[in-house]
Amino acid sequence: MVDPASKVKGIQHMQTKEFASADVMSVVTGVLLGKIAGVYEVLNWMTDDELMTHQLPYVGREAGPVIVAAHPSLAVAIEEAQQVTHENCQEWLRTWKARYGATIAVPKLVRKE
Hints:
- By secondary structure, the chain is mainly alpha-helical.
- It has one domain.
- Helix content is 48%, strand content 9%.
- It has a two-stranded antiparallel ribbon with strand order 1-2.
- α1 (21-29) packs across α2 and α1 (21-29) packs across α3.
């Protein structure tokens, strides 16, 4: 389980790694905007694990809020993602890339012992 306090406290001191915006936004919004391999890459790095397919939804639900805590401006995209369709997903991705950049720094998950 993720320690909720770790989501904000000391976030600037956490280890981070840059990932493609499409992959990070897929984790944050729950909408696949790139390739599934990118989602695996983000979540595997965050967890220091090699996740299996059935683990992605649970870990994604844990990881998304941690990413948003590190980048509060991403929160609006969660609401906007409700408007994403197959037809407009690339337009939304372009909008988010323009707003957030080509890459987004992702923090490691901090596990509560």
